[in-house]
């Protein structure tokens, strides 16, 4: 189900099964909060979330006031994150990060040692 703030998730830009899974998990607030609470004690300083998807965990770090950068390589998720979180003052960036990039270490070298928690 698409809401006005959620772009249509087309099979062109999205793994349909993955999107359905993220949408279902997105409705499991207690589960997402438990996952966040598991890592919260280890977050400090500048935080980078790799593979933010629909922001199921991101929202808790943002609401707790952490300085957060989100990332995803999928254009649909990337746009969704922009629409959902751009208004948050502690959101530092929404990045395109592809962990399978063939020259990952050189391509993303500007991010090295930029974050305290990943």
Description:
With 118 residues, this protein is of the alpha/beta class. It is built from five helices and three strands. A three-stranded parallel sheet has the order 1-2-3. Helix 4 links the parallel strand 2 (67-71) and strand 3 (91-95). The chain is globular.
Strand content: 5-15%
Strand order, sheet with most strands: 1-2-3
What are the low-pLDDT stretches, counting only 5+ consecutive residues below 50? 1-11
Mean of residue pLDDT?
85
Order of helices and strands: HHEHEHEH
**Helical segment tally?**
5
Biggest sheet descriptor: 3 strands, parallel
Helix content: 25-40%
In whole angstroms, the N-to-C terminal distance is 31 Å
Query: Would you tell me the structural class of the helices and strands?
Result: alpha/beta
What does the radius of gyration come to? Answer: 14 Å
Question: Quick one: how many beta strands?
Answer: 3
Shape: globular
Using brief descriptors, characterize the structure shown:
three-stranded parallel sheet; 118 residues; alpha/beta
